[in-house]
Design goal:
188 residues; Four Helix Bundle (Hemerythrin (Met), subunit A); 7 helices; globular
């Protein structure tokens, strides 16, 4: 049985009610995959006015597909593999492009390192130890802080407010702490 989080219940009672019943979590994940090349392009050409809402919508789609899958019992093997992959691609590609412009590039290395470490750990446990891994609150918090941190940096491209860089750095370092704890959680 998959754990349904409080946020899942809120999303199911509000935003997910706006979705037609025919929409599946996997379709939302595919949507997230499809947004990534466009996001990369808009970041590359520095069209932050488009990149910011695209990133926010794409990152928020992670919460939506997870809530839909858990509350409607629509979890699939495909989704278990590709939903986290879409998340990692979204966060890693955005971080690689935007973080070095404003923050120490070591932060990108840490983000990528922990994402690869977590995926490897989960893959190992599921493939070789036959342990089914479910999303944890810690992993959800990691994604939230990554998304908030990257959103703040993207907003700097529009508003040029230095305090957003400081806030972003704080959120991204907090996300690394959650990534470390998440790795420990998945590897024990």
């Amino acid at each position: 049985m998959n754990k349904i989080y409080f946020t899942d219940k809120i999303l199911a009672a509000t935003i997910l009610k706006l979705f037609p019943a025919s929409i599946t979590p996997n379709q939302i994940t595919i949507f997230r995959f499809l947004t990534i090349p466009f996001l990369i392009w808009f970041l590359y050409v520095e069209k932050y006015i488009i990149a910011v809402p695209l990133f926010i919508i794409s990152a928020f789609s992670d919460a939506l597909d997870g809530a839909l899958a858990r509350t409607k019992n629509k979890i699939t093997n495909w989704g278990k593999i590709y939903d986290p992959l879409a998340d990692k691609l979204l966060i890693i590609t955005t971080a690689i492009i935007i973080v070095p412009k404003y923050l120490n590039p070591i932060l990108v290395v840490l983000i990528v390192f922990f994402e690869v470490l977590i995926v490897s750990s989960v893959y190992y446990r599921e493939k070789f130890k036959n342990i089914t891994i479910q999303v944890t609150f810690i992993a959800k918090m990691k994604m939230l802080f990554q998304s908030l941190g990257l959103t703040c940096l993207l907003l700097v491209g529009i508003f040029s407010l230095p305090f957003l860089i400081t806030i972003s750095e704080f959120f991204l370092y907090v996300s690394i702490v959650f990534a470390f704890v998440s790795f420990l959680n998945y590897s024990l």
